[in-house]
Design a protein that fits this description.
The chain has 687 residues and is of the alpha+beta class. Among the domains are: 5-176, Glutaredoxin; 338-412, no CATH class; 611-686, Glutaredoxin (3-Layer(aba) Sandwich), CATH 3.40.30. Helix content is 49%, strand content 10%.
């Protein structure tokens, strides 16, 4: 019978790392290496294949495979003897993950995490998959049997493996190569075509687009809403508002503590995969702010506030950085922190509160969530969702008191694991979301959090001398990795912060980020941005990411960000780079718009001359702040807000105060509407 790791004490070299995911594996009996030359050199010198395992610290099935396989000493001994084993945190190295995920998908194996791939010593993949079970079943070999088979092939058919790896590498090169499609116009028809395809996938019962499992993927409804408002398409608008309402009523939304889980396993948003990711919640703040501005309904603003409350309470470093994620599991049980039994609630709440909670949240004796953990699954678990929203004023009082008791009681439970690394990319997303929430909702705490976050990122991850942005900071150390994801997302967030403050230093920083991003990642010949810098010697490919999945592709984010910056600063070179990137990806926009909803937002912005709200006057003056708030209180996505001083476009700098007080100009191209000091008039002009 295999010996479990608990019977022996191990510490491997991952103990030197900072990634929470790698540190989770530091006591495995597997002789893990981090991604880097030390591992590659060992594979070359000992002529061994590489076993590459990629995941992230809040990944449920990564935990399962660790318990079943990587803590098993028999299996570990086999790996240590015949392979060089490498662990990668996909959140720290999305560039590495993208290459090998594409390879596994090209093999017809599907995708997901954990991602397990076998490589030659020159890092070329030759076989891979996702989760491998510890025992053979359903016609699939056990993980150990697979390792034995790979080892036998390595010993007896190494030339065949080398040939196969070379062919796959060539295939990957072809798959990831993009070329501009000649003669394909960047026209409004691309937007109409995309909107029709999205609307065809709409779920009229539960909201959302597509079936189970259901991801929020916020840029897709954001695009449908933008298109619907432009055309006055009330049905498209209703689809998005219905989606927002149903998501917030579902179990995917934490009804007690705020914030959204990553996705729901069902079509009705009820049972989540309980991990919470910073990037999802950042994008959802933007979506709920949009829904609020379009509908005027305060419930959508309340969801945005609740998300931010959760982020500032549970996901923020004392110095201002935002943490990455919270796990689905606690105490080895998925969802244990979040679920309730009817018996628990009956003991905790007064009879009146209990009866209301049962009705409002749909709590039943049997529960609605099946715990699949083994051994001893938890019985009768309820995921809370809003089943009966019809409340009297007295019900509202009872619900508030009941939820407060539930929240306080839940704080005494063992929390899920917190992935406390700070990523420049995801922090850029949340920086932008909280900045914009300040602009729309006027909460000064949001602005303070945004300013503090940017100061943190600038001090920990930005080298002002070399104009270099690094990707990850944790426990006092930053990494040495440079990624387009970091530059593009932080740029977008800083632009949002500038638009709600008019602080010239923020626009100056945005320009510095842009100059560095263009120099390191932009392809001047073909257009588009590489995911990694040219000096990334540990990669077998340079890829231009073109898929807006749970996170928007950095190419899509970069396009929209530099278009906004171009409108603010009259930088025609930035607009030309965005256009060239759009033309490179035009075939993608036409044939598979479902893959690039965020890029569609960039195309939408490019197709229309943006409105420029230019505010002249002291940025700290009360009237200036009122005008800023008015500018952000109208749903008008194709606009930029700027001052008349600092590194803004020359025309804006010529616009003066009128009657000695803060004045706003609404300009398009080289023409402006008559200046005004009135917030109501500005809102009317923007509409």
């Amino acid at each position: 019978m295999p010996t479990n790791a608990a019977a022996r004490s191990f510490t491997n070299r991952l103990a030197r790392e900072k990634s929470p995911y790698l540190l989770q594996h530091q006591h495995n009996p597997v002789d893990w290496y981090a991604w880097g030359e030390e591992a590659f050199a060992k594979a070359r010198s000992e002529n061994k294949p590489i076993f590459l395992s990629i995941g992230y610290s809040t990944c449920h099935w990564c935990h399962v495979m660790e318990r079943e396989s990587f803590e098993n000493t028999t299996l570990a001994d086999y790996l240590n003897k015949h392979f060089v084993s490498i662990k990668v945190d996909r959140e720290e190295r999305p560039d590495v993950d993208k290459i090998y995920m594409t390879a596994v998908q090209a093999m017809g194996q599907g995708g997901g995490w954990p991602l397990n791939v076998f490589l030659t010593a020159d890092l070329k993949p030759f076989y891979g998959g996702t989760y491998f079970p510890p025992e053979s079943k359903y016609g699939r070999p056990s993980f150990l049997q697979l390792l034995q088979h790979i080892q036998q092939l390595w010993e007896t058919r190494r030339e065949d493996i080398a040939t196969s790896a070379t062919q796959l590498h060539e295939q990957l090169t072809n798959i990831t190569r993009q070329e501009e499609t000649q003669g394909l116009l960047l026209a409004p028809e691309l937007l109409h075509n995309a909107a029709k395809k999205f609307e065809k996938d709409y779920d009229p019962q539960h909201g959302g687009f597509g079936g189970a499992p259901k991801f929020p993927r916020p840029t897709q409804p954001a695009f449908v809403l933008r298109h619907g408002v432009r055309l006055g398409d009330q049905e498209a608008i209703r689809m998005v508002l219905h989606t927002c309402e149903r998501m917030a009523a579902g179990g995917m939304y934490d009804q007690i503590g705020g914030g959204f889980s990553r996705y729901s396993v069902d079509a009705g948003w009820l049972v989540p995969h309980f991990e919470k990711m910073l990037y999802d919640n950042a994008q959802l703040i933007h979506l709920y702010l949009d829904a609020y501005l379009v509908s005027g309904e305060g419930r959508f603003a309340d969801v945005a506030r609740d998300i931010i409350r959760y982020i500032l309470r549970d996901m923020t470093h004392p110095d201002g950085g935002f943490y990455s994620a919270e796990d689905a599991d606690s105490e080895g049980k998925e969802g244990k922190f979040y679920c309730w039994t009817r018996a628990e609630l009956s003991k905790l709440l007064t009879p009146e509160e209990f009866n209301l909670a049962v009705r409002y949240f749909g709590v039943t004796e049997i529960g609605n969530f099946i715990d699949h953990s083994d051994p001893n699954p938890l019985p009768n678990q309820n995921v809370l969702s809003i089943v009966d929203p019809n409340l009297s004023s007295n019900d509202q009082v009872l619900l508030t008191s009941g939820k407060k008791k539930m929240f306080n009681d839940r704080t005494r439970r063992i929390r899920p694991h917190l992935d406390d690394k700070v990523l420049a990319s995801w922090n850029g997303m949340m920086l932008g979301a909280i900045s914009r929430a300040h602009g729309v909702l006027g909460d000064e705490n949001y602005l303070a959090a945004a300013e503090k976050n940017l100061s943190f990122l600038q001090s920990k991850l930005w080298d002002s001398k070399t104009r270099t942005l690094y990707h990850r900071w944790r426990a006092g150390e930053r990494d040495s990795v440079q990624l387009l994801d970091a530059y593009a997302n932080l740029l977008a967030g800083v632009i949002d912060l500038y638009e709600v403050t008019l602080e010239s230093k923020h626009l100056e920083f945005a320009l510095a980020l842009t100059e560095s991003m263009m120099a390191k990642f932009y392809d001047k010949e073909a257009g588009g941005f590489w995911q990694s810098a040219a000096n990334s010697s540990d990669l077998i490919l340079r890829i231009k990411e073109d898929y807006d999945g749970a996170e928007p592709a950095a190419n899509s984010v970069a396009v929209l960000a530099i278009l906004k910056l171009s409108a603010m600063t009259d930088r025609s070179d930035l607009k030309a780079a965005a256009e060239k990137t759009l033309r490179l990806l035009a075939d993608r926009l036409q044939r598979l718009p479902q893959a690039v909803p965020h890029l569609l937002l960039g195309l939408d912005f490019w197709l229309e001359e943006p409105k420029r709200v230019v505010i002249a006057g002291d940025k700290t003056a009360p009237l200036t702040r009122e005008l800023l708030r008015a500018a952000h209180s109208v749903y008008q996505p194709n606009k930029v807000v700027l001052s008349n001083n600092g590194p803004v476009e020359p025309f804006a700098r010529t616009l003066p105060l009128v009657s000695g007080q803060p004045t706003v100009y609404l300009c398009t191209g080289t023409s402006c509407q008559p200046p005004t000091h009135e917030t109501g008039k500005l809102k009317q002009m923007l509409k």
